[in-house]
Design a protein that fits this description.
Number of strands: 19
Shape: elongated
Number of helices: 22
Oligomer: single chain
Structural class: alpha/beta
Distance between the termini: 31 Å
Length: 563
């Protein structure tokens, strides 16, 4: 909401300031209201009675300044946050506090920074309880700012303490559902870093959430909070308000596209949020969005689960395959996302065309592709009325492009009678299941895939188009099992593995078929590549190594902080 422009004229009676006339967009308001200065004095008397020796009056909007003077006359310090310079010039309230060591005046445009300044002032004076009072006219002028500030100041305080005092940090792993946080907690345990796990669930009452998190933070005293894909961060910003008030940093490691996730959050980050992204191509866009701390942190694997198995069957087995692929057909997922988007007719009619064009284009996001290549369609996309529906359309386009790309590449493997592990959508993608190719329903990630990968002579990988430069989880898990991987070329792969020596890489569908035939005929080469791939994983691509990197960044960024 836009801040209302105004002009302020002081009004006097018998030489005393009694009100300020505000001319706002052609309308006239009065700063003091019907009760005038007496109303401010009455509110101040109520605050004085409540504050005692530990309270701090916090005026969000100074009004005429009568309340400030009453609190100071009673011996109470005061904090004021007021950005309405025209009004303060008319009242002179700010000038009357100049040089007062027990008075704070803040006009920071960032409500989080303003709240932090008030809390720091309170801590310096030993005042542990804040008593915020929102002036109704200030709120009417800029409701977004003053309501947000009031919410930040209402967060219960915690004792301040220095962060990162030990060699290994204390980590609070937060999530709304179990997704890779288990790997993080296991890695913390293996490193010896104190770790606490907290699952909030998909929905949680605000008061219950605040109480639960406060209790955990008080008991465990973490150095920072860690989450994956922003799970556990609520869409309304309650968690960020709590962490800001407590001076507690947040590390959020994205293993899926942050550009398809963060726009759903208001706000998505604060000044103590560090984003780690598995795709280096997303670093610059996140910085451009105003995220203050962004770092590249690729995926990894749990090498204790994904490891060579000495007890693998040597003969026939239902999972044994010459060539295999593990992945979703994207058929049902795409249909569900498109239905959620409910795009205008022109975007439905051109859906396949857009997905095909996006797949071949260099752009990482669908919106960027439409803006650059299909401006008329971009206008239709921009007219979709909600962020959630626009993101659903983008996701549907990405998944449809992925679906078609996977089908085209895997079709070249049909002469090798491949095994495809995935959903029932593959049955309508390729005819001849059971004769030309064989389907195995989805396998459990932790318990079954580590056994499946070593039973394939060639594990083929086709990366989703949500990452045009990055690599996916299979690029780490398959070599960790000392199994052979044949993956599509991705620009960021060469920073992680040596193509041809630690993993095999193909360029396109035709190249995939040729390399599959070649490597099927060279078992010694496959074994050498698989062994080299595992050595590289153990040396560089485990979760404990990733967390050491994350710990170092958090310490470097916030090591001197108190909260």
């Amino acid at each position: 909401m836009a801040v209302l422009p105004l002009a302020a004229t002081p009004l006097y009676a018998a030489g005393r300031l009694v009100d300020v006339r505000l001319d706002v967009g052609g309308k006239t308001w009065r700063l003091a209201g019907r009760r005038g200065p007496d109303g401010e004095a009455a509110r101040a008397a109520s605050i004085v009675a409540r504050c005692g020796a530990t309270g701090l009056p916090v005026f969000l909007g100074a009004g005429l300044g009568v309340g400030l003077e009453a609190c100071r006359a009673a011996g109470l310090p005061v904090a004021v946050v007021d950005r309405e310079t025209a009004i303060t010039a008319a009242t002179g309230a700010r000038d009357r506090l100049v040089g007062d060591a027990e008075a704070l005046w803040c006009d920071d445009a960032d409500p989080q920074a303003a709240a932090a300044a008030v809390r720091a002032f309170a801590a310096r004076l030993g005042r542990t309880v804040l008593h915020p009072v929102v002036h109704p006219v200030s709120r009417r002028i800029d409701p977004d700012y003053y309501d947000r500030l009031a919410g930040l100041l209402a967060v219960p305080a915690l004792p301040s303490r220095p962060r990162f005092q030990n060699v290994l940090p204390r980590v609070l792993c937060l999530t709304s559902k179990l997704f890779l946080v288990g790997e993080a907690t296991r890695a913390c345990e293996r490193l010896g870093a104190p770790c606490r796990y907290l699952e909030t669930g998909e929905s949680c009452d605000k008061d219950a959430f605040v109480a639960m998190l406060r209790q955990v933070v008080e008991d465990f005293r973490p150095d920072f909070v860690l989450t994956v894909n922003h799970m556990g961060v609520d869409h309304d910003g309650v968690l960020l308000e709590l962490l800001e008030a407590w001076g507690l940093p947040l590390a959020s490691w994205f293993v899926d596209s942050p550009e398809l996730i963060l726009p759903l959050y208001r706000p998505a980050v604060n000044r103590r949020t560090v984003l780690f992204t598995w795709d280096e191509d997303t670093v610059a866009p996140l910085v451009a969005r105003g995220c203050p701390h962004v770092h590249y942190l690729p995926l990894a694997t749990d090498e204790t689960r994904f490891a060579p198995r000495p007890d693998l069957p040597t003969g026939a087995h239902p999972w044994r395959a010459r060539v295999s692929f593990v992945g979703n057909s994207m058929l049902e997922k795409t249909a569900l996302r498109l239905a959620a988007a409910d795009p205008p007719a022109i975007l439905r009619e051109t859906f396949v065309e857009v997905a095909t064009g996006f797949a071949a284009a260099p752009h990482g996001m669908v919106a960027a592709y439409l803006a650059a290549e299909r401006p008329a369609l971009f206008a239709a996309y921009a007219a979709i009325p909600t962020v959630a529906r626009r993101l659903a359309y983008e996701t549907a386009v990405i998944w449809e492009g992925t679906r078609r790309d996977r089908a085209a590449r895997l079709a070249k493997l049909l002469p090798f009678s491949p095994v495809i592990v995935g959903d029932a959508g593959w049955l309508s993608t390729f005819p001849g299941e059971g004769t030309v190719w064989r389907r195995i329903p989805e396998l459990a990630y932790y318990d079954q895939l580590p056994l499946f990968y070593p039973l394939s002579d060639i594990n083929c990988n086709v990366t989703s188009l949500q990452m045009k430069g990055a690599v996916n989880q299979r690029v780490f898990d398959v070599p960790a099992c000392q199994a052979f991987l044949l993956t599509d070329r991705r620009r960021q792969l060469e920073r992680l593995f040596e193509p041809g020596r630690e993993v095999a890489v193909y360029r396109d569908a035709e190249d995939l078929a040729e390399l599959a035939a070649r490597y099927l005929a060279e078992p010694d080469t496959r074994r050498a590549v698989a062994a080299a791939g595992r050595r590289r994983v153990l040396a560089e691509h485990t979760y404990p190594r990733r967390l050491r990197t994350l710990f170092a960044v958090m310490r470097q960024t916030f090591g001197g902080a108190h909260g």
